[in-house]
Amino acid sequence: MLSIDQIFPLLSQPRNVVITTHQKPDGDAMGSSLGLYHFLKQFGHTVTVISPTNWASFLNWMPDSKLVLDYEAQTDKANAAIDNADWIFCLDFNTLIRTKRMEEKLTNSNAVRILIDHHQEPQVDKFTYGDSNTSKSSTCEMVYDFIVNSGNEDKINEQVAECLYAGVMTDTGSFRFPSTSANVHRMVAVLKDKGLQHSKVHEELFDNFLENKFKFIGNVLLHRMEIFYEYNTALIAVPQSDLIKYNIKTGDTEGLVNYPLSIQGIRLAAIIIDRGDERKCSFRSKGEFDVNLFARKYFNGGGHINAAGGQSSEPLDAVVAKFKTAMIENKNQLSNYQF
Ligand code: 5GP
Ligand code: MN
Fold it and tell me: Among candidates 286, 285, 272, 269, which has minimal Cα distance to 234?
């Protein structure tokens, strides 16, 4: 994988560009994709953003989100864009399997693949150019660096600023995680200078939920959460019947795993959700407990040191049992915390 700096001189020549991201895109995935889209369009490129799956409705306020293709729902249109592409930007993921049913199409494409991502252990042989940096707070921060380092800060308009802010804000837990560097704050200052209305973005993302979501959260905290004080660990296991009962949609469960981390002493929080076709896991930790390693070892996943995910094809009960065994195996790292 060559340095992404090498494409800077090529930016001014219009091309067919596809931008894609991981399945079930979150704020950083959608924000970085649409932020880059609004930047690249200014050079006269023909740009198509493709999401491998649908996404949470609280992302629909992002400028031009209506133009994003859902690969599962608009496969033919998306395949045509990939067939025509000169460049394919891959944002906020680093292994092609994270694009689910798009993996094969991406693998077989003749386009030049370009990676911008902050997860561990990238598949470097799959990308011609790239920027992979695990110390970065978010892919949105890296797209910002890409724009500024290529000498195009003047092309950060209000749309670019809104999209990039949404991703950096959500991926840093509203600027509280350790990844929130001085550069992140400097970036936000520049975005403000470019016309960013940050309160609007917060309201769009956080004050837009339906009543059913809150009832679902209440039910989960009351009935589906187990605390293991001896291990400084909390587990939430959600059966599919809850998702049906409360009419839970894509994105409604996002952030739920963070709730138990606010309980005194808890260093590891996990949520396992029975989505029907698979059991999806999310892990969050505080301090040194590495959930990226944990997710890789036990749940066929990955991510970052303090935020990771995975999945399993086994039934919910079996995944819960596996988690408890894994927790016990990690007793030393989980119990020996100095508070
Ligand atoms: P979340 O728990 O919010 O779905 O994901 C937390 C972090 O772990 C994100 O950075 C996400 O990209 C990563 N992640 C989530 N699920 C998986 C997975 O199944 N495989 C890998 N490699 N990473 C994941
Ligand atoms: Mn991210």
Answer: 269
From the alpha carbon of 292, which atom of ligand 1 is closest?
Answer: 8
Best mutation site among 96, 304, 319 for ligand 1, i.e. most ligand atoms within 8 A of its Cβ?
Answer: 304
Total-model pTM: 0.94
Mean pLDDT of all residues belonging to the chain:
97
Considering every ligand atom, which ligand is closest to the CA of 299? 1
Count of Cβ atoms closer than 10 Å to residue 17 Cβ: 24
Q: Kindly report, residue by residue over 155-175, the tens digit of the pLDDT.
A: 999 999 999 999 999 999 999
Question: In angstroms, what is the span from residue 310 Cα to ligand 1's centroid?
Answer: 6
| Domain boundary pick from 176, 206, 236 | 206
**pLDDT recorded at residue 114:** 98
pLDDT in tens, 97-156: 999 999 999 999 999 999 999 999 999 999 999 999 999 999 999 999 999 999 999 999
Residues 36 and 150 both lie in one domain: yes
Q: What is the 3-state secondary structure (H, E, C) of 132-157?
A: ECCCCCCHHHHHHHHHHHCCCHHHCC
Mutate which of 275, 282, 290, 294 for ligand 1? The one with the most ligand atoms within 8 Å of its CB, which is 282
Distance set, CA 143 to CA 101, 146, 153, 187 (Å): 25, 5, 11, 11
Residue nearest to atom 23 of ligand 1 (CA): 302
Assess whether pLDDT exceeds 70 at residue 337.
Answer: no
Residues 140 and 32 in one domain: yes
Whether 284 and 254 have beta carbons less than 8 Å apart is answered as no
Domain that holds residue 292: 212-335
Question: Which residues sit with their C-beta closer than 6 Å to ligand 1?
Answer: 22, 119, 282, 301-304, 307-311
CATH number, domain with residue 192: 3.90.1640.10
**264, two tokens:** 């005194």
Instruction: Report the separation in Å between the CA atom of 230 and the middle of ligand 2, taken as the mean of its atom positions.
Output: 32
Residues with CB under 5 A from ligand 2 (ion): 28, 92, 139, 171
Task: Give, using CA atoms, the residue closest to atom 14 of ligand 1.
Answer: 309
**Three-state DSSP class for residue 311:** strand
Number of structural domains the chain divides into: 2
